[in-house]
Structures are given as structure tokens and as C-alpha cells.
Amino acid sequence: MSSLPTIVPISELRSDAAGVIKRAAASQEPVVITQRGRAAAVMVSAQSYERTQHELEILRLLARGEAEIEAGVGHDLDVVLAEADELLRGS
Asked: pTM of the predicted model, to two decimals?
């Protein structure tokens, strides 16, 4: 991600929604939508959103695994690795 986000006033979004969406999709970077000079929303491409959701699911699974380890619940390593491979292929 670049150091400075793309910032678009809501008035520009109203007048050129297709262009703003095209920029978000092409750059694969978030576009911050401002209203009255303050950040009001963030727009991302569908591909970026799906990637983020996939990464979030992996983090949830890792957190659940850590909690299970702390609770003394164990799983067969081969099963865990097979599930991880399947999850990674889905990206």
C-alpha cells in the first residue's frame, strides 16, 4: 500500500462514481471518501475485499488454533496441514 491514500470528496464520487470505482480497481488500493473534510468511508475493489476477507479467515483460524493449543486440545498434524493446503488453494 502506498504511503499516501487516495482521497476523494463525496461530491466527486457523486459526479464520477464510475471513474472512482475504476481507479480503486486499477490501483488495488483503498480510496478514502471524505464528507465535510473528514474520512467517511473507504472504497476497495471487489478483488481486494475478497483477498482481505480470505486473509481475515486465515487469521481467525490461527487464533482458534492457538486457543485450542492453550486449552490442550490437539489435532493430527497431517489433517491440519491438509486443511491448510486446501484453504491456501482457495485464494
From this structure: 0.66
